Amino acid sequence: MKKLLLFGVGLLTLIACNKNETPEGSLHLTGNVKGLSQGKLYVKKIEDTTLVVLDSIIIKGDSHFDTTIPLKNPEVLYLFLDRGQTNSVDNNLSFFAEPGEMNIETTLKEFYASAKITGSKNQDLLVEFNSFKSKFNDENLGLIEKRIQNTTNFNQQTADSIEEAYARLLKRKYRYTANFATTHGEYEVAPYLAITEISDINVVYLDTIAKHMSRQVAASKYGKLLRKHIYDVKKETLNSNK
Fold it and tell me: What's the pLDDT score for residue 126?
């Protein structure tokens, strides 16, 4: 009787533990939008160039949220905030989701800017890349400002100098992105960056990135998209040379 009782307790404990575990092939997303007392959150993904809703979460009183959605492979998802009475451009937060446990902590005031996202190595790498991209954007804005200033009292030598600086900056961005993707071929962020940031780079570099992808990454959504893009570019080049 005692053994039977212990077996029953053990079975119940196992069931309880299993309930707390994230189901295989899914994302358990938790988080908090500090300051949000009422509104709605949407988790979306891009499917055939269209944003589709995976789940909607009603916020009423408690700013914390908790949802589980199907997700077999790492993929960029979007957390949209419906503020209700007020509209804001700061209502869209993209994140590189991975199956398992993830958490998003942010605020109503700075929904995108103050977001802290944990639980995804791909997201960590994307943040690292975006840190470089932010510096590139700042330098690019500086060049745009110089272009505008040069239109007031146009000087061809200055214009040429600005364009040369932009070409060097763009080349540096492309090289950094290609190297970053090649170095992290075991993560889905590699083909994602190749497609979204440097799809028009020389196909030789895209080939190098593809060759450094792990089998798992090559079989992922972005791995397949990259390989298809490389195939299409090579096919177009071949046809144009006929």
Answer: 98
Q: Structurally, how many domains does the chain consist of?
A: 2
Sign of CA dihedral 16, 17, 21, 25: negative
Judgement on whether residues 83 and 143 belong to the same structural domain of the protein: no
Query: How far is the C-alpha of 75 from the C-alpha of 226, rounded, in Å?
Result: 14
Quote the domain boundaries for residue 32: 25-117
pLDDT for res 23: 82
Structure tokens at 104: 């998003």
Q: How deeply is 46 buried, as exposed, middle or buried, from its count of CB atoms within 10 A (0-12, 13-18, 19+)?
A: middle
Residue 228 parent element (H or E): helix 221-240
What is the predicted pLDDT for the residue at 90?
Answer: 78
Same domain, 33 and 101: yes
Residues 100 and 167 in one domain: no
17: tokens are 């533990």
pTM: 0.87
Examine the fold and report which residue of 117, 142, 166 is the final residue of a domain before the chain moves on.
117
31 and 97 in a single domain? The answer is yes
Q: Maximum Cα–Cα distance for the chain, whole Å? A: 96
Same domain, 54 and 150: no
H-helix or E-strand spanning residue 145: helix 121-152
| Predicted pLDDT of residue 240 | 83
Ranges under pLDDT 70 in the chain: 1-20, 84-89
Amino acid, single-letter form, for residue 215: R
pLDDT at 24: 87
Q: E-assigned strands of the chain?
A: 26-34, 38-47, 50-60, 64-70, 75-82, 92-97, 100-107, 116-118
